[in-house]
């Protein structure tokens, strides 16, 4: 983790730095997170670290560890499935509203993100792939002109980042979802609200099936590798 400068939103920066370590796989399930060590590594005081750890614990990302500090909570596949079920509905609504309200802005705002996403896939740049994926979906939320959509999705993106990070790191060849993104974008730009909603929900459902299967395999392999007690 790189050192960061003190700013008014310092606790948020610390939270994002810890989450980046988790989604990148540098902090895997069960990894210990010690407040003092994080503060020293990032070059900040203990107070913003304490605030960030409290937020991540409330989100179910971290939990109190025996003895000292916290540890990264393994992903719960039932929770992940429920999260994707909710996402499919919200993403469908966002794409429908974007097609109805701002079709002319879709290509203008989205094409550059798609090109960056494709480039990240070609380089197997996992953290960039996740960042561009989030940027694409957040762009659609903005085009929907419904402020409740990004506010509602905020509570799910942390888990979504973790899922993407763990699956991408275990894939021998990164899964390229940008063709689907481009099809969704062009449908929004055409003003076809019904099809945009259908494509978005299908996109999320297919992603859910793929991600959960990969997580199931990863967890089974981890259990096999654990030494017998």
User: What is the 3D shape?
Assistant: globular
Secondary-structure class: mainly alpha
User: Which regions are unreliable across 5 or more consecutive residues at pLDDT < 50?
Assistant: none
For the biggest β-sheet, the strand order reads: 1-3-2
CATH homologous superfamily identity of the largest domain: GntR ligand-binding domain-like
The level 1 CATH classification of the largest domain is Mainly Alpha
Helix content: over 70%
Strand content: under 5%
What is the CATH architecture annotation of the largest domain?
A: Up-down Bundle
Task: Calculate the mean pLDDT score and round it.
Answer: 91
Rg for CA atoms: 19 Å
The CATH topology of the largest domain is given as Four Helix Bundle (Hemerythrin (Met), subunit A)
* Series of H and E elements: HEHHEEHHHHHH
Provide key terms for this protein.
229 residues; mainly alpha; Arc Repressor Mutant, subunit A; Four Helix Bundle (Hemerythrin (Met), subunit A); 2 domains; 3 strands; 73% helix; 3% strand; globular
Structure explained in plain terms:
With 229 residues, this protein is mainly alpha-helical. The chain has two domains: 10-72, Arc Repressor Mutant, subunit A (Orthogonal Bundle); 77-224, Up-down Bundle (Four Helix Bundle (Hemerythrin (Met), subunit A)), CATH 1.20.120. 73% of the residues lie in helices and 3% in strands. The chain has a three-stranded antiparallel beta sheet with strand order 1-3-2. A hairpin with a 5-residue loop joins strand 2 (62-64) and strand 3 (70-72). The mean pLDDT is 91.
């Amino acid at each position: 983790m790189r050192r960061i400068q003190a700013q008014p939103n310092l606790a948020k920066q610390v939270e994002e730095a810890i989450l980046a370590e988790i989604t990148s796989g540098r902090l895997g399930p069960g990894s210990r997170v010690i407040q003092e060590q994080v503060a020293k590594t990032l070059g900040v005081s203990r107070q913003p670290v304490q605030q960030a750890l409290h937020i991540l614990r409330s989100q179910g990302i971290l939990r109190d560890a025996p003895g000292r500090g916290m540890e990264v909570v393994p992903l719960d596949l039932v929770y992940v499935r429920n999260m994707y079920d909710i996402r499919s509905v919200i993403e469908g609504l966002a794409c429908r509203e974007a097609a109805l309200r701002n079709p002319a802005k879709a290509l203008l705002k989205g094409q550059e993100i798609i090109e960056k996403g494709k480039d990240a896939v070609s380089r197997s740049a996992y953290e960039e792939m996740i960042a561009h994926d989030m940027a694409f979906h957040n762009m659609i939320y903005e085009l929907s002109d419904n402020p409740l959509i990004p506010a509602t999705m905020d509570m799910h993106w942390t888990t979504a980042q973790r899922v993407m990070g763990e699956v991408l790191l275990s894939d021998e060849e990164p899964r390229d979802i940008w063709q689907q993104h481009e099809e969704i974008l062009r449908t929004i730009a055409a003003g076809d609200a019904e099809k945009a909603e259908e494509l978005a929900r299908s996109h999320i459902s297919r992603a859910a099936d793929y991600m959960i299967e990969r997580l199931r395999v990863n967890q089974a392999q981890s259990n096999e590798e654990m030494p017998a007690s």
